[in-house]
Amino acid sequence: MSGAGVPLRELGIVLLVAAAITYLATGPVRSLLVRTGRVAEIRKRDVHTQPTPSLGGVAMFSGFVAAIFLADQLPALTRGFAPVTPEMTAVVWGAFAIVVVGVIDDLYELGALTKLIGQILAAVLMSTMGLSFTLMYVPFQGGTTLLLDQVQGSLLASVFTVLLINAINFVDGIDGLAAGLGMIAGGAILVFSLTVLHDQGGAVSAYPPAIICAALVGICLGFLPHNFDPSRIFMGDSGAMLIGLLLAAASISASGKINMSLYGTADVVALMSPIIVVAAAIALPVLDLIMAVIRRVSQGKSPFAADRQHIHHRLLALGHTHRRTVLVLYLWVSAVAFGAVSFSIFPAKFAVALSIVLLVFAAVATAVPALRGKIGPQPPQPTVIVHSADPR
Length: 392
Known about the structure:
Radius of gyration: 20 Å
Number of strands: 2
Number of domains: 1
Helix content: 55-70%
Number of helices: 14
Structural class: mainly alpha
């Protein structure tokens, strides 16, 4: 143990193994796809000019499974596995199911309804196997928690998981974006889980989200070198939906299983920090998803219809380059997610000040093209790489 009840060293090993296996497996996966001609063909709605392999999720899943297997062998982390808790078994099977759906979609392009059914089945599988909400904290009620029965908890967890899967899938429209957001969001929830492990002396309920997030951060970190602009391989639906499911799993485990009444009622923000962190971590993809659905339905289109009005498209229109657009989005997600988690670590006044500084920094970075002004000839419009697996 690296601290009281906090297995930092072991979680660090899990993260590094996930990153290394994912990084090493991505090359062979890409080579196999290129040799067999399994590459994403250029379609009318795509703007990338080179056919690109789109099964990076297979390498990411390989890294995840290897990391979870290792974690199960480490004595300091065994409290996060069966028979103590069924959550890790549930998330592995849920991840396997969603990757199977994603691989089929990447290779044969499933219809929207068929893919949604597959997502629901994976979410229901994970929730019924033991990863579902059991406790919901009620703010301003003296630390009251609501107990959910199995049906209520599983239903809520399944809906939440499907929402997260589609949110990440929708935002996966530019090189490096989904992997970076998954890494940042997972990192924020990991920090919260480590805080709970420290404060509660190694609470069993905090082990699964910490392990899941360590593996999630690792697979995203390992895939990014292959996927950052210019991308040599796309993660495809198999990767984007895997990130969404793992983020949902960590969120459910962190906010649904940790009894926040143990912290007292003096600081409402600190008490609500698991929910706030979860909301902050998924704020960007969910906002993008909601805006896309409203926009398309208001125009009389299907909510699944592709367009080029996502947040990253708007940043490109402001004058940001491809890479800078991704970095700006990283900044916003980092500012909100880590600003929120800071309330569970620092005094409220310091946390508020830190959150404001982070948000101002992100706002200034966003406004840089406008602040610079349009002087001289305009630079060429950067190429937007919309992933052929799912550009929505």
